[in-house]
Write a structure and sequence with these properties.
Length: about 450
């Protein structure tokens, strides 16, 4: 190869390479020394020193788009891999697994990493830590929340300095793409199409991607879900931890939970009522419900539905399950159904500190949800729809759920009832004993 300047005298300043480069002596370009007639005769190539400068400019441009300077403190060094004080063992373990996976991904940039978790669980911190680690190594990295990414693309339609095609190409071809808050974007046809095109391009070309979301996979648009579900490409990590911005105590209870009102209702305080001379068939239903509750508490799988009249013991058993899991450090949400609906309605108040979407998602995705007194709520159309959305999500995702009800089918939406009686997922225990009167006036008379 020989050195080559542009025809017409001076080399434009924007094309200058390294003046000490042994290949181009600062020209920035090379021309292959080939015989006339060769297909590449006269073709100019960017010198290696110039390529390094181009890469540096690409890195700077992506960094400025990413606003990573605002997230520079979110690193692996500033992340607590065991979470804050007060978390249960399982919550701490899930945070540590996510931390280890994120570090491994940052070192290898192999495949995709999908980080799922609730608001404030730490998933954005880990995604930013990956991005910051890669930027420090010179990897051209683009970090954007998905709504910001879509806005960046929309703005190019009116921009003069960059075209939509150029910006779209920058996004698709970034050496590392980090998409934070996936699922919070508006679900317009245009937005879905652009996101799919980006993911599909990087999927086909096996380019590294990090995605954070508070959605379950089944909530994501089908084409994108298929890409994010590929076990050969995508590593999934799920952080089971509450919002770090909220205070927490070491009870394993969600702040919405009313389990503190039932802290004395355990398996140890449950009465077998043998001294009441119950009918054998009734006593058997109580014993079977007790055993089913104990088994579920040890290993929550599917749904457990406890049916029985007022005071039969179903609330005590549901609370015992929740108290046992909480004592082991597992997150539990225990709510009376009418109270749950009141909490959701309260989010519509402008003074509410939490949005409806956020609260409903926390309830819907709870690791263990106990719904007490289903059927006692007023069945307005809004209530029917909200309960159906809640049930349908947990049914499709097979999330551990305990339900107590008086078994009055007429008071329960038929869609809910059909899911509760599906024996493939649900274990149903009907308690037929009369109301427990017990001793004294303690609250357990509700049972």
């Amino acid at each position: 190869m020989t050195d080559q300047e542009f025809e017409g005298g001076e080399t434009p300043r924007s094309t200058l390479g390294d003046p000490n480069c042994p290949h181009c002596q600062g020209a920035g370009y090379l021309r292959k020394d080939l015989a006339p007639g060769h297909p590449d005769f006269g073709r100019i190539e960017i010198c290696i020193c110039r390529q390094a400068d181009v890469q540096s400019r690409i890195r700077e441009r992506l960094f400025s788009l990413s606003h990573l300077d605002e997230l520079r403190d979110l690193t692996f060094e500033t992340f607590n891999p065991r979470g804050r004080v007060g978390l249960g063992q399982q919550q701490q373990d899930s945070i540590e697994r996510a931390y280890n996976q994120a570090q491994a991904f940052a070192e290898t940039l192999s495949g995709w990493l999908l980080i799922q978790g609730g608001y404030g669980s730490g998933k954005t911190h880990l995604a930013a830590a990956i991005a910051n680690a890669c930027v420090s190594r010179g990897v051209p990295t683009l970090f954007l929340t998905v709504p910001d990414l879509l806005d960046t693309l929309r703005f190019t339609y009116d921009a003069e300095e960059v075209t939509f095609e150029e910006r779209f190409d920058q996004v698709r071809n970034a050496s590392l793409l980090v998409l934070d808050d996936f699922g919070t974007q508006s679900a317009t046809a245009w937005a879905q199409e652009k996101l799919f095109q980006i993911l599909n391009y990087r999927y086909i070309n096996q380019m590294p991607v990090v995605v954070t979301t508070n959605l379950a996979l089944e909530q994501i648009e089908g084409r994108m879900r298929s890409r994010l579900s590929d076990p050969e490409l995508v590593t999934h990590v799920h952080i089971h931890a509450p919002d770090y911005r909220r205070p927490v105590v070491d009870t394993g209870q969600h702040e919405l939970s009313s389990l503190h009102d039932h802290n004395d209702q355990t398996f140890g305080t449950f009465s077998d009522r043998k001294g009441e001379k119950l009918q054998p068939v009734d006593a058997k239903t109580l014993e079977e419900a007790f055993q089913a509750a104990r088994e579920f508490a040890e290993d929550p799988q599917g749904w457990l539905v406890l049916m029985g009249p007022f005071g039969s013991g179903k609330t005590h058993l549901a609370a015992a399950i929740a108290n046992y899991r909480a004592s082991q450090g597992y997150p539990v949400m225990y709510v009376v159904v009418p109270d749950l609906l009141d909490h959701l309605r309260a989010t519509f108040n402008p003074a509410s500190a939490v949005s409806y979407d956020r609260l409903f998602e926390e309830i819907r995705a709870a690791q263990l949800l106990v719904l007490d007194d289903l059927g006692t709520q007023a069945m307005t159309p809004w209530v029917r729809e909200k309960l159906y959305q809640l049930f349908n999500h947990r049914y499709n995702a097979a999330l551990p759920t305990v339900i107590t009800t008086a078994d009055r089918e007429a008071e329960i939406d038929s869609r809910l009832y059909a899911r509760m009686l599906d024996r493939r997922l649900c274990k149903v225990k009907k308690i037929t004993v009369p109301a427990y009167r017990g001793r004294g006036t303690r609250r357990s008379s509700k049972r």
